[in-house]
Amino acid sequence: MLQTLRKLGRDAIPALVAASVAHARSVLAASAVLGVLLVFYVFTHLSVDTSIANMLDDSLRFRQLEQQLDRTFPQFAKPFVAVIEAASADQASDAAQRLAAQFRAEPELFKAVYLPSQPEFFSRHGLLYLELDELWKLSDRLTEAAPFLGSLAQDRSLNGLFTTLGRALGEPLSADYQARIKAMLDSVRDAIEAELQGSAYRRSWQDLLGGDELRQENPRSFVLVQPALDEDSVRRAGAALDRAHSFARSAEAMAAKGGGALDIRLTGPAAIDDEELESVNQGAGIATAASFALVCVILFLGMRSTRLVLATLATLFLGLITTAAFAAFVFGSLNLLSVTFAVLFIGLGVDFGIQFGMRYREEVNAGMAAEAEKKAALNRTARGIAGALALAAVAAAISFFSFVPTSYRALAELGMISGAGMFIALAANLIVLPALLVVIPMPADFGQTAIVHAGGLQFAIGRHRRKILWGAALLAAGAALLLPHARFDFNPINLKDETTESVATFRDLLADPDTTPYSIDIVTDNLAQAQQLAARLSELPEVDKALTLASFVPKKQNDKLAIIADLSLVLQPLVTARNLSTPPAGDAEREALERFRLKLMEAADSGKDKGAGKSTDDGAASDTGQGAYARSSGGANEGNEDSGIYADSARLLAEAIARFQQRGASPENLDNLRQRLLGDLTRTLDRLRDLLTPPPVTLENLPQGLKQRYVNPDGLARVEVFPKQNLGDNQALRRFVAAVQAVAPNAIGAPVSLVEGGGAVVTASVQAAIYGLCGIIVLLLVVLRSAGDTLSVLVPLALSALLTIACSVLFDIPFNFANLIALPLLLGIGIAFGIYLVMRQRSGMNIDDLFHSSTPRAVFFSAATTIASFGALAFSSHRGMSSMGVLLTLALSFALVSTLLVLPALMAARERSGRG
Questions:
Q1: With the CA atoms of 293, 295, 299 and 301 taken in that order, what torsion angle do they form, in degrees rounded to the nearest 10?
Q2: Which tens digits make up the pLDDT trace of 531-552?
Q3: H/E element holding 623?
Q4: Nearest alpha-carbon partner for 912 in 856, 862, 847
């Protein structure tokens, strides 16, 4: 190895540079043609894979369990979810059914569509899924409301509504039902006020009549969709998602036009990955452009020659596009980590150009300024810097290639691409850059520009070397104390752009135990095994519920069916009623409205006069309904002092009706009011009638779509386990996974994948760091043949790593899937800085001469360009890329300071002790 590197430095690299210089124009012509071809190849063959799952090796056990689940229940692979929210459950359900119908109409884009609410099934069997005590409460409430419901069922018009409500006023009803009448009066008033103001309003009759047993406090409906994937497109589910967004926006616009409110959002793996791709592409593009711009500025400040900078940048571009072509040829796509290779290459590839260019300028300053002597200066540069460049390239490549044997596929691919990129960058700077420097004419004073050296810095370092070394030791000791507090955030949702619709919606669902996407799945041999396992899992304190297909067969059905049968007899008018009446003419409705207003005023005055709102009797109740309320409640509240609970509501509603009448109560206004008040009444009454005649539920008559999600055609059964806590908390997520795995080791699902994947990533990163460190130590010992020089190169890196970890703790920047590579990358990037200084000193310079040469300045500007390159990532909207940029900027800043302060202090101390 030693002889090979020496031969490279002494013979091969200078010969390569000499050949490039001798045939400069031919080299540049070939490079231009190659560059054009490679650009075309990259744009037609390189894609981006945003899947987190594909970032890990398929040989890992949890990955095999994931693949087994996908084969057993393929409908769970990469779906998206449409989350529909509306003012009421009915409206959300209607919108979900319409949206599902639109999806099913285009099977070329939407392979499978599933409505979890199963409206056709649960609209018939819903009462069987109530707890027995809840069903009793509902039965009591509907029994008391029977006259009201029967009357409404026979006349579903404004006349029927006002007449029925008017009859209810002042009747001796229970406090609960009086509160319900009050809510109805308030609802009517709100509708009239909305009509007067021209604002949106629509009240759900299901909520008004059904009570808590049928009410949904946060009405949502869901549509689960498996999109068709276009494997030839970068956005594989893009066409389906674009169409789904179009459907959603159209539905929202129609709802708004009708005075309603509807919100449809898309989330789930397919939607998150698609928006992630856009975020990554945008972030990587911005970071690459910003990185390139910053590098240009720093290059100009360092080289002080526009032409030299242009030559370096042209070389950098060719190397970058060649590395991208290598990635396209070997892998075909980039993952969420390897997509940053461009920023890595810019930061590292330009390092070789800076070292070569600034050394070339130094050689010109040494007395070879004549144009005719360019070639000699370039050959001299090659002989002087070849060994250091080769060693730096090999060391960086070793650190990158150390990623390859790990199970973290994303890291392995980045390592392969970046490792190859180091040799591509070295070759480009030894072949293309010298040819450019021959062809590009340099200004007349190029050789006379003085080099700004760092001699003053070395004087200060030499004078205070002991203080510097003691300070570094104290910093290292303090940082080491913080190591146990470093943490790893294994949840990739925390890396995503929270401003995107899919991620924001995902977090909303995660906060609700009933809608959390973080459930665990276990595949068993049959349903009986699944039921036994679910029973054991349900006893765990971390588990909210464990579902199998059998969980959807209601318990105590005989008791519930008996209650429903009795209720059906009580509500016989509702069960048999059909709305055969036509809406009365406008005059009749206006008269009904006036009668209702007078009745309201009477109820309000009665409540005021009696204080307790005691009911008044204005005549014998007719058999058609007025006295039926008292009979249905058994006279339980006759004389009850709380019977005037709705007096204020009656007064306010009467005043609202008066204002409505003053406006004219035109046919158009009455029609609008009818829609606001009775729009979903028929649907609610029909649904209630269907709920009163359910057949028993068995495994056989459960919806087919539901059965397919829990038992596959081969009889394999799935257990779905839901957490009790919000798994947005990583510690809760760990506890949930550990508890379930203790009972079912073959458990899989998002929570298991996150925890197991996080462990695999940490293990892979530690392995990569160990492999890289061992490889670099061996390389340095073999090449430098000095344990002292090897230690001098490694000490600044060790200090930088400790300080980086300490900052991650102090500034609460947890390690994650993206930024965990900062430490292995620090090894590959930072090692070059020390190599350049040590190799230049070993060429025969003492420490003072070294700091009067171009090398420290080149190291500074190389580090500055690398820091700027990675620093640009910090401004990405993608949180993973941003955290990577922040941590790498910190790591490389520490590496630069350590290399230019601690390493020279060590070198000075060794030199003065006679061991230099």
A1: 70
A2: 999 999 999 999 999 999 999 9
A3: none
A4: 847
Single residue among 649, 672, 691 that ends a domain in this structure: 691
**Is the residue at 728 inside a domain?**
no
Confidence label for 361 from pLDDT (cuts 50, 70 and 90): confident
Same domain, 292 and 146: no
What is the total count of domains within the chain? Answer: 2
CB 455 within 8 A of CB 361: no
Comparing CA positions, the residue from 216, 225, 320 lying closest to residue 268 is 225
Q: Is 643 helix (H, G, I), strand (E, B) or coil?
A: coil
Q: Do both 686 and 766 map to the same domain?
A: no
Q: What are phi and psi of 516, to 5 degrees?
A: -55, 130
How long is the chain? 916
Per-residue pLDDT tens over the stretch 696-712 = 999 999 999 999 999 99
Q: CA-CA distance, 365 to 289, in Å (whole number)?
A: 34
Of 174 and 12, the structure prediction assigns the larger pLDDT to: 12
d(C-alpha 462, C-alpha 454), whole Å: 12
Please spell the DSSP secondary structure of 489-537, one letter per residue. ---GGGGS-TTSHHHHHHHHHHTSTTT-S--EEEEESSHHHHHHHHHHH
Q: pLDDT of 427-481, one tens digit each?
A: 999 999 999 998 887 665 555 444 445 545 666 776 788 899 999 999 999 999 9
Decide: 866 and 392 in contact? Cβ < 8 Å.
no
Q: Which domain holds residue 457?
A: 2-54+274-492+754-912
Pair 580, 694: CB distance under 8 Å: no
Per-residue exposure over 355-377, b if at least 16 CB sit within 10 Å of its own CB, e if not: bbbbbbbbbbbeebbeeeebbeb
Three-class secondary structure of residue 546 per DSSP: strand
Looking at residues 668-686, what average pLDDT do you find?
80
Residue listed under structure tokens 């109560």: 665
Residue type, 51: S
Coil, strand, or helix at residue 263? strand
Residues 446 and 585 in one domain: no
What are the DSSP calls for 686-753, one per residue?
HHHHHHTSPPPP-STTS-HHHHHTTB-TT--EEEEEEESS-TTSHHHHHHHHHHHHHH-TT-EEHHHH
Q: Which helix (H) or strand (E) holds 875?
A: none
Complete edge-to-edge strand list for the sheet that includes strand 543-547: 543-547, 717-723, 520-524, 748-749
Q: For residue 639, what pLDDT is reported? A: 39
By mean pLDDT, which of 142-146, 226-230, 257-261, 296-300 is the weakest? 257-261
**Structure letter (DSSP) for residue 543:** E
Last residue of a domain, one of 691, 722, 743: 691
Higher pLDDT among residues 299 and 613, named by residue: 299
Most confident of 17-21, 26-30, 297-301: 26-30
- What pLDDT is recorded for position 499? 82
Q: Which residue type occupies 447? A: G
Whether residue 291 is contained in a domain is answered as yes
pLDDT score at 612: 43
Q: What does residue 571 show for φ and ψ, rounded to 5 degrees?
A: -95, 30
CA distance 818 to 35: 30
Enumerate residues 6+ apart whose C-beta is below 8 A from 913: none
Q: Which of 655, 661, 686 is nearest to 673 (CA)?
A: 661
CATH number at residue 19: 1.20.1640.10
Residue 812 lies in a domain: yes
Look up the pTM and report it. Answer: 0.75
**Rounded Cα gap, residues 517 and 727, in angstroms:** 10
Q: Could you tell me if 671 and 811 lie in one domain?
A: no
Q: Are residues 157 and 302 in the same domain?
A: no
Same domain for 394 and 286: yes
Instruction: Write down the mean pLDDT value for the chain.
Output: 83
Residues 606 and 483 in one domain: no
Per the domain annotation, does 278 fall within a domain?
yes
Q: 278 and 426 share a domain?
A: yes
Q: What is the pLDDT of residue 100?
A: 95
